[in-house]
Amino acid sequence: MPTVDERLKHVSLKVKRAKEHVTDLQRELRAFLESGPYKIGAKHDPETRKLIYYVTSAEPIPDCLSLIAGDAIQNLMSALDHLAYQMVCNDTGDNPPNPNWIYFPVADDAAKYEVKKRRRMEGARQETFDAIDALKPYKAGNDLLWVLYRLNNIEKHRLLLTVGSQAAGMNLGQLMASHLGGTFPAEAVAAFESMNVFLNPADKGFPLKAGFELYIGAADEKPNPKQQFRFDVALSESGIIDGKPLLDTVNHFTALVDGIVTALTPRLK
To answer: I need a labelling partner for 200 at 20 to 30 A (CA). Which of 21, 82, 121, 170 fits?
Structure first.
């Protein structure tokens, strides 16, 4: 019988490859954001005279970001499929009854999971199903795992994942400094300017386009040339995930799969 390490070899290789993709994604994302893809302007509403900061231009998201994220997601889901295969092999003495149709079971709800799991892992022992049941691999049980599963299906069978830019906040310290200037000591104003605290907007404007209003100030307020805004590249698929930062999301998926592998490794002993 293979050792635990031997059974985990392909699982570990898939996770390792996913992490390499995440490193590539981080590098490409940083390069894009540091290229200055967003331009900001300020104007006054002709009727209310209120100051408006807005996006004057936003460069398209490089296709490589969606491609790399998709590759990472595929490797992570594949790692779970390899894990499922090895668990069935372990339970059947390396003689699974249906070796070409073993997949890690994830479903849209608990009832569908109960129907699917024995088809996906035919031959597995009840103890193995109990261990997987504890993960609640379905929507409203383990939402992050369900999102990983659904995104993997989209990326493999339909089209590239939908990524786009969105607003990620304005520097609250600079905003306060601009309002207090002239009434507070210079050192107090400078302290606010150095706060580097960003106010997260409720409306992030995904996918970001020219003309999107980032902040509406007071009537006759003067634009602050130091005012900073942050932007992010986000992932969004209708009914699955809504404007979540791309890199953070893929990192969460990676940690999730690492945790699942650790939790289920005892079933290989």
So the answer is: 21
d(CA 223, CA 205): 21
The answer to which of 72-86, 131-145, 188-202, 246-260 has the lowest mean pLDDT is: 188-202
What count of Cα atoms within 13 Å lies in the side-chain half-sphere of residue 146? 17
Residue 172, pLDDT score: 85
The average pLDDT across 27-44 equals 98
Report which of 63, 55, 58, 152 is spatially closest to residue 103, judged by C-alpha positions.
152
**Per-residue tokens: 35:** 């290229």
pLDDT interval class at 182 (50, 70, 90): low
Q: What's the CA gap between 257 and 265, in Å, rounded?
A: 12
pLDDT at position 193 over 80 = no
User: Which residues share a beta bridge with 232?
Assistant: 166
Rounded distance, CA 38 to CA 229, Å?
A: 10
In the block, residue with structure tokens 């007071």: 218
Single pTM value for the model: 0.93
Query: Residue 81: which pLDDT band, with cuts at 50, 70 and 90?
Result: very high
Express the helix, strand and coil content of the chain in percent, nearest 5 each.
Answer: 50, 20, 30
**Contact assessment for residue 213 and residue 54, using Cβ atoms and an 8 Å cutoff:** yes
Report which DSSP code applies to 109.
S
H helices then E strands: how many in the chain?
8, 7
Gap between the Cα atoms of 84 and 111, Å rounded: 20
